Amino acid sequence: MRVSVTEEFTEDENENGEEERVFLKPVIEDRNMELARKCSEIISDVHYKEEFEKSKGKCIFVPDTPQLKHVKSVGAFISEVKYKGAAKKDLSNSLYQQMPATIDSAFAKELTQLQSKVRL
């Protein structure tokens, strides 16, 4: 058991203008005091913020669950659909589509359509 004596005192003035000295009582440190100190440290907001600041740069590994895999595949599918839709829209506004129809351009257009059908 440790006993720590505090040497601090407070000086207050009472109504008569006299200074009053109040000495603090010694604090006896036993198991209850240690428990109280540990609990206050755990509850302390300062320690929480320090731990938060330390853990900011760390990565946390999340295992791939079936739901997470499904969400990733749906996200990839949606992204692909948007990409292909934007590409088709750009192709419809291309200079090739706006050219006047000549015999060569009509022939080239038919060939590209046939090639795209063969690839599918």
TrEMBL record:
Entries under InterPro entries matching the protein: NEBU/NEBL, Nebulin_repeat
Q: Which GO terms describe its molecular function?
A: actin filament binding
Which BP terms in the Gene Ontology apply to this protein?
cardiac muscle thin filament assembly
Task: Identify the keywords attached in UniProt to this record, alphabetized.
Answer: Actin-binding, Repeat
Top-level taxon of the source organism: Eukaryota
GO CC annotation terms, alphabetical:
Z disc
Q: What is this protein called?
A: Uncharacterized protein
